[in-house]
Design goal:
The structure holds 2 protein chains of 2 kinds. In chain A, about 40% of the residues lie in helices and about 20% in strands. Chain A is an alpha/beta fold. Chain A folds into 2 domains: about 5-170, VC0802-like (2-Layer Sandwich), CATH 3.30.2130; about 185-394, 3-Layer(aba) Sandwich (Rossmann fold). Chain A is elongated and about 85 Å long. By secondary structure, chain B is α/β, with parallel strands linked by helices. In chain B, about 40% of the residues lie in helices and about 15% in strands. The chains are: A alpha/beta, B alpha/beta.
C-alpha cells in the first residue's frame, strides 16, 4: 500500500465565517491535535494558505490516523497526500505515475489532472501542468480515459516549495469544530438518547460537560460506570468531558415523601434541570442539553416538557426532539454508544416511576405540590451541589 | 467495618496460594512440556497438585484433568460424553436448578439433536426421585446433577441418587457438578458412584481461572479442546502452572481439619439464621422443615419481603456488607433466578431474595455487623417502594 506522509484536511463552513474564520481554524487545529494525541506517532498540524495539513513526523498507522480524523467535527474531507520534495518536471511526472501505480490497482477509470501552482516561478503554468501531466499518465497507463467534465478520479497536483499529490478523498463528519459555539451541560442518563444528543450538539461546535444523577442504593455503581463508559465513547467526538456526578437520593426521597406520587418524575426532573443549571452556570455553560423526544415517555409530552423547562432559566436544547426512536438508535449505533446504553442497569428515573404518571401536568398543580418541599429542599439542593463528584473523561 | 459474605461467588485466596503462585512466576516459570530442567521444575508443581487432589478424592492421579474452571469442567463433561456416546443413545437428564454452565451446554446439545429431560425439585430444592427414575430410558446416556445448589444451598443425596439410577440402567454416566460442595464435604467418587466430577479453584480459596474435572478411568469421553496433546490429549494447551500450583495448595489447606471447618461454618450459619429471622418479614428460602446439617454449611438464601434484591444489595454494599442477589453468575441479566422459581417461590419473593454465603474466614463479628445493617436498612427501604 501507498505510504502517505501527510493528509490534506478540507473544511467547509469554516471557510464562510468571515472575519471570525481564524477562530474556527484554530479550533479545528486544536481539535485535530487532540484527536491525534490518542494515536501512536508524532504529527504536525500546519495551516498554510487556507489549507490545513497533518504531516507525519514518524511512523504511524494509516487506519488509526484516518479513524481519528474521521471523528473530528469540522472536517469535510481527509485527503492522504504524497509529498514530493524534488519538483523538477522529469522527477515530478515519474513520481505522479508511481503514485497512480501504487494507489490504483485497476486503472480502468476516467480521470483528469487538476493543478495549482503556488510557486509562480515554476516553468509550467497550471493549465500546462494539467495537459502535460495528463498526457504523460495516459502514455504510461493506456487503460485510463480522460474526462475533464465528470471524471471518476481527480489527480490533484499542487506545486509549492514541494509538490503535493492527492486523489483519494475520505469523507469527514462535517459540522463545526468543538469549542467554537460555546459550552453546554448535558444531562446524561445512561439511556440511548442523551449520548446521541451530546454528539449532535458537539457536531455544531458545542463543547460539552455532563451531569449524571446517581441515586444509591437504588442505582448501582455499575450504572454509574455505564455513564462513565458512555461519556468516554462520546468524548471520542467531543473531546474531553467534565462529568459531574450528583447524589440525588436525598432529594428524590424527599419528593417521594412530600408530593403526589404521579407527579414524582416531573418534580424530580425539575430539580435535575435546576441542579444542572447551577453546575452549568459555574462553568460558563450557555444551555442545557437533554435526550428528550416528544411523546417518548410521560415526562416527555409537550405539557411535561413545558413544566420542566419552567424550572430553569437556561435554554434547554433537545437535539433529538422530533426523532423517532429508531433514528436515534441508528446514530447511537454509529457512534458506538448503543451497546453500552442497553446494558440493563436501572437509572434513578425508573426506580420509583408511578404506574400511572401524569402526562398532562399543569404548572399550577406542580408548583402547588412543590410548596410541600419548601422546608428542606434548599438545604438538600445545596448539599447535592457541595458533594458533587467530578470525573474528568479524556 | 467490612463483611464479605459472598463466598459462594468467590473466596479470598489463602496466603500460601499466593506465595506458591508467585514462585511459579518468579523462578519456576518453565513450560512443563519442555525437555530441559526448567520444564521439569515446572512439571513438579503439576505432579504435586495432582497428587493432593487425587488423594482428597481417593482416586488415581491420571483421573484428574485440569481445566480453566468450573464452567469448562461442566462443558467438557457434558459435551465430551454426549458426543462420545451418542451411538448408545441421545437422551440426557439433568435438573431444573442447575447452574448456567450446565443449563446452557444442555441447550447447545439440544440444538445438536440430543433430547434433554429437566427434572423438577421440591420446595427445598431436592430432586424429585420418582420423576428422575421415570425419565431414564433405553436412550439415556448421561445424568448430571449438582451436589450443592449455589443459590439456596440445597444438598442432593448424591450417593443414593447414583445407586438408584444405576440400578435402573447400569451403564449410565453420572456427572456431578460439585463446584459448591468440594472443600465443604469429603467426596469420594468411586464409593459414591460418580463418573465425572467438576470442581472450581476459586470457590475454595484458590485462584480464578483454574479447576479440574475428575474423569473415571476408561470412561468414554471426547476432548473438547484440541491442540498440542497436553494432559494425555484430554485437555490441550500449555498447563496453567500458577493456577494448578495454587489450586493444589488450596485443596491441601481446605481439607486440613476438614470436619472442624465444616462444623465452624454450620455454627456460623445457625447463628446467622437465628438472628436474621428475628427481623420483621425476613424468611429463609429452601430450609422448610430441614435439619441444618442437611443443607450446605455456607449458603443462606434470605428473602426480605417488599424490597428489591438489588436495592438491598447496594444499600448493604454502602455499609461494607457484600452479598449476592440471586446467583452472582446470572445476576448480570435481569431474568429471574431459575432455582428460586423452581422451588416454587412466588415472583415477589424471588425479587426480594439475597444470598449470604460464608467461608472459614467469616467471623461472628461480621455476621453481627451484617445483621445490624439489615436491621437499620429494612424499615427505611420498605418505606420507599414503587406505587
Amino acid at each position: 500500500m501507498m505510504k502517505y506522509k501527510a493528509f490534506l484536511i478540507k473544511y467547509a463552513e469554516i471557510g464562510i465565517k468571515g472575519k471570525n474564520r481564524y477562530i474556527f481554524e484554530n479550533a479545528l487545529v486544536s481539535q485535530i491535535k487532540c484527536a491525534l494525541q490518542k494515536v501512536d506517532g508524532s504529527f504536525q498540524v500546519t495551516k498554510e494558505q487556507g489549507r490545513l495539513y497533518v504531516e507525519a513526523l514518524s511512523d504511524y498507522d494509516y487506519e488509526d490516523v484516518t479513524e481519528a480524523l474521521k471523528c473530528v467535527f469540522g472536517i469535510v474531507a481527509i485527503c492522504p497526500v504524497k509529498i514530493i520534495e524534488d519538483t523538477t518536471w522529469e522527477t515530478l511526472v515519474k513520481e505522479v505515475a508511481k503514485y497512480m501505480e501504487e494507489t490504483y490497482e485497476d486503472k480502468n477509470f476516467t480521470f483528469k489532472v487538476a493543478a495549482k501552482r503556488a510557486d509562480k516561478n515554476y516553468p509550467y503554468t497550471s493549465p500546462e501542468i494539467c495537459i502535460e501531466m495528463g498526457a504523460y499518465l495516459l502514455e504510461q497507463f493506456p487503460e485510463l480515459t480522460v474526462d475533464v467534465h465528470n471524471p471518476e478520479v481527480v489527480v490533484n497536483v499542487e506545486i509549492r516549495s514541494k509538490a503535493y499529490i492527492y486523489s483519494v478523498i475520505i469523507p469527514g463528519l462535517g459540522g463545526l469544530p468543538v469549542g467554537t459555539a460555546g459550552k453546554a451541560m448535558v444531562l446524561l442518563s445512561g439511556g440511548i438518547d442523551s449520548p446521541v444528543s451530546s454528539y449532535m450538539v458537539a457536531k455544531r461546535g458545542v463543547e460539552v460537560e455532563a451531569v449524571y444523577f446517581h441515586a444509591p442504593p437504588y442505582t448501582s455503581e455499575r450504572a454509574k460506570q455505564k455513564v462513565i463508559d458512555l461519556a468516554k465513547k462520546v468524548s471520542k467526538y467531543t473531546g474531553p468531558i467534565k462529568l459531574h456526578v450528583i447524589n440525588f437520593t436525598e432529594i428524590q426521597m424527599y419528593i417521594y415523601d412530600q408530593c403526589p406520587h404521579d407527579q414524582l418524575t416531573i418534580i424530580m426532573k425539575r430539580y435535575m434541570v435546576k441542579l444542572a443549571e447551577a453546575l452549568g452556570e459555574k462553568d460558563g455553560c450557555l444551555g442545557l442539553v437533554t435526550g428528550e423526544s416528544i411523546g417518548q415517555v410521560a415526562s416527555q409530552t409537550m405539557q411535561s416538557m413545558a413544566v420542566i423547562e419552567e424550572a430553569c432559566s437556561m435554554p434547554i436544547y433537545r437535539p433529538v426532539i422530533a426523532f423517532d426512536k429508531q433514528d436515534i438508535v441508528d446514530i447511537a449505533e454509529k457512534i458506538g454508544t448503543y451497546e453500552i446504553s442497553i446494558q440493563p442497569y436501572e437509572d434513578c428515573c425508573t426506580t420509583f416511576v408511578a404506574k400511572h404518571p401524569v402526562t398532562k401536568p399543569t404548572l399550577k398543580s406542580i408548583c402547588k405540590s412543590e410548596t410541600h418541599l419548601e422546608e428542606k429542599i434548599g438545604e438538600m439542593f445545596q448539599k447535592a451541589l457541595d458533594t458533587v463528584e467530578i470525573i474528568e473523561i479524556a | 467495618m467490612k463483611a464479605y459474605l459472598d463466598n459462594a461467588a468467590t473466596t479470598i485466596p489463602f496466603p500460601e496460594v499466593r506465595e506458591i503462585m508467585m514462585q511459579t512466576m518468579e523462578t519456576d516459570y518453565g513450560n512443563p512440556s519442555s525437555m530441559h530442567q526448567l520444564g521439569v521444575d515446572a512439571e513438579k508443581y503439576i505432579k504435586n497438585a495432582k497428587e493432593i487432589i487425587a488423594k482428597s478424592l481417593k482416586v488415581e492421579e491420571k483421573e484428574i484433568v485440569f481445566t480453566s474452571g468450573g464452567t469448562e469442567s461442566n462443558n467438557q463433561a457434558l459435551i465430551g460424553t454426549a458426543f462420545a456416546n451418542k451411538r448408545k443413545g441421545m437422551h440426557l437428564i439433568t435438573t431444573n436448578i442447575e447452574h448456567a454452565s450446565i443449563h446452557n451446554p444442555m441447550l447447545f446439545l439440544e440444538d445438536c439433536g440430543f433430547r434433554v429431560s429437566y427434572i423438577s425439585v421440591d420446595k427445598n430444592g431436592h430432586v424429585n426421585m420418582d420423576e428422575l427414575l421415570d425419565a431414564i430410558c433405553e436412550e439415556t446416556i448421561l445424568v448430571s446433577i449438582m451436589y450443592v445448589n449455589n443459590e439456596i444451598g440445597a444438598v442432593e443425596d448424591i450417593a443414593s441418587i447414583a445407586k438408584k439410577i444405576k440400578e435402573k440402567k447400569k451403564d449410565l454416566i453420572f456427572h456431578v457438578d460439585a463446584i459448591q460442595a468440594y472443600g465443604k464435604y469429603p467426596i469420594y467418587p468411586k464409593r459414591m458412584g460418580i463418573d465425572l466430577l467438576s470442581v472450581s479453584g476459586h470457590k475454595i480459596h484458590g485462584p480464578k481461572g483454574i479447576g479440574f474435572l475428575y474423569i473415571k478411568d476408561k470412561l468414554k469421553i471426547n476432548p473438547y479442546i484440541y491442540g498440542g496433546g497436553q494432559q494425555r490429549g484430554m485437555r490441550s494447551g500449555t498447563e496453567n502452572v500458577p493456577g494448578i500450583a495454587g489450586l493444589g495448595m488450596a485443596v491441601k489447606l481446605i481439607y486440613e481439619n476438614q470436619e472442624e471447618k465444616r462444623e465452624k461454618l454450620y455454627e456460623l450459619k445457625q447463628y446467622f439464621i437465628d438472628k436474621i429471622t428475628l427481623l420483621e418479614d425476613v424468611f429463609i428460602n429452601g430450609m422448610e422443615d430441614m435439619e441444618l446439617k442437611d443443607t450446605a454449611p455456607h449458603v443462606v438464601s434470605v428473602c426480605a419481603k417488599g424490597i428489591g434484591s438489588e436495592v438491598l444489595l447496594h444499600a448493604l454494599e454502602d455499609k461494607g456488607v457484600y452479598v449476592s442477589s440471586g446467583s452472582a453468575c446470572s445476576s448480570n441479566h435481569p431474568a429471574l433466578s431459575g432455582t428460586l422459581q423452581a422451588i416454587g417461590l412466588e415472583k415477589q419473593m424471588v425479587e426480594s431474595t439475597i444470598r449470604f454465603s460464608f467461608s472459614i474466614f467469616t467471623t461472628k463479628e461480621e455476621l453481627d455487623y451484617a445483621i445490624v445493617a439489615m436491621e437499620e436498612l429494612l424499615p427505611m427501604l420498605r418505606r420507599y417502594v414503587r406505587k
